[in-house]
From TrEMBL:
Residue span, Alpha-D-phosphohexomutase C-terminal domain: 387-462
Keywords: Isomerase, Magnesium, Metal-binding, Phosphoprotein
Family: Belongs to the phosphohexose mutase family.
Superkingdom of origin: Bacteria
Signal peptide: none
Record bears the keyword Metal-binding: yes
InterPro entries, sorted: A-D-PHexomutase_a/b/a-I, A-D-PHexomutase_a/b/a-I/II/III, A-D-PHexomutase_a/b/a-II, A-D-PHexomutase_a/b/a-III, A-D-PHexomutase_C, A-D-PHexomutase_C_sf, Alpha-D-phosphohexomutase_SF
Listed GO biological process terms: carbohydrate metabolic process
Name of the featured protein: Phosphomannomutase/phosphoglucomutase
Gene3D superfamilies associated with the record: Alpha-D-Glucose-1,6-Bisphosphate, subunit A, domain 3, Alpha-D-phosphohexomutase, C-terminal domain
NCBIfam families according to UniProt: PRK09542.1
Gene designation: manB
Cofactor(s) this protein requires: Mg(2+)
Alpha-D-phosphohexomutase alpha/beta/alpha domain sequence ranges: 8-124, 159-263, 270-381
Amino acid sequence: MTIDLSASFKAYDVRGIVGESITAETVRATGAAFVDVLDLAGRTVLVGGDMRPSSPEFMDAFAEGALRRGADVLKIGLISTDELYYASGTLDAAGVTFTASHNPAEYNGMKMSKAGAVPVSSETGLYDIRDLAQRYLDEGRIPAAPAPGTVTERDVLAGYAEYLRSLVDLSGARPLKVVVDAGNGMAGLTTPAVLGDAVLPALPLEIVPLYFELDGTFPNHPANPLEPENLVDLQRAVQEHGADLGIAFDGDADRCFVVDERGGTVSPSAVTALVAEREIERARAEGVETPVIIHNLITSRAVPELVTARGGRPVRTRVGHSFIKAVMAQESAVFGGEHSAHYYFRDFFNADTGMLAAMHLLAALGEQERPLSELMHQYDPYAASGEVNSTVEDKEGAVRRVVDALAGRDVVVETLDGTTLSCPDEGWWFNLRPSNTEPFLRLNVEAKDAETMERVRDRVLELVRS
């Protein structure tokens, strides 16, 4: 029976269960469709993947489909997702990496990029690729191009490390001890190259490695630092080693999460604010009068407030990397941040890279003497719930219940991405948004103080789950 690709093609990537919704057969058809839809016959297509057990087979299958439709395949091997963006940007070539990011071991998927690290989303060709690949599957054959492509290989890790080092100078920072939890994901390869001395000269950083062994079965904990239980080992190690901070990466190492010297979690919105401040300062020094900073709608209101105060212009957008990258390009933005810990940089082809965000944080900490908890306090003035997920059968009905109960004269309702209600007079706002990749209704609440946040959070959850 032919697999229905609509089960694995999401709004801005592909994710499915290996052997069920994603197989070598579906990947081969997708590789062929990728070449056809993006008109890549006779051009180079980059193919890489993460450490999941199925990634090597899928990389080969995608390459076979692309070669059959006439593309030249450059295999770039074992990579983090932001290594794909680096390679796509510097080589000006379209590409794919096989990863399911933070999802469990039974999953795999694809993140695709046009030349120049331009994202491929549902609005820019991903569903066209899906539909053509489905046709190839249904017909049981992929037609051969007049001239099949060629295969070459290249390791991009050293170039990636050198490029990131050129964007943030850490050589003059005070010595820092940093615990890094790679979660058995790709940061186990990229951290020694960028922050250590595996490729380049040593920095004034003492790296304490945690779960650097590449293992796509995730034997220690899921590579999803968004869940608090997956930060416990990092928090313990920071305190045991007397480290200045801890950094956790997700499975494909495109997101980074931070804990301070006491083991306390640092809000990704606070990281966004800190990096935004640094990038505004740098852009203004280069002559940009009003640098643009992108933030998604669930990022703390502290971010646009700081951006405005520092002479920048904040632009709010919906959640999702492909959408933010598009707005980054449209607005000529210098930086963008999401509360999910995706960080986007003009100087990194408008793409997201957790490693570069981590380097900015290390530089900011290393330029002064305060501990991280004190440094970050100024960037985190509000009380936030964090993301609270609810599995709800009727998501639209749940949102309607909330709006009917809470909307009023003093409450503003917006529908940019999900539904956002805000009450400036009482000092709170929240967003309810159905997940693009999981069966959840997601709630984020922020308020002027913890008591107000908890009151609003509990009332909304009562309505959602009733």
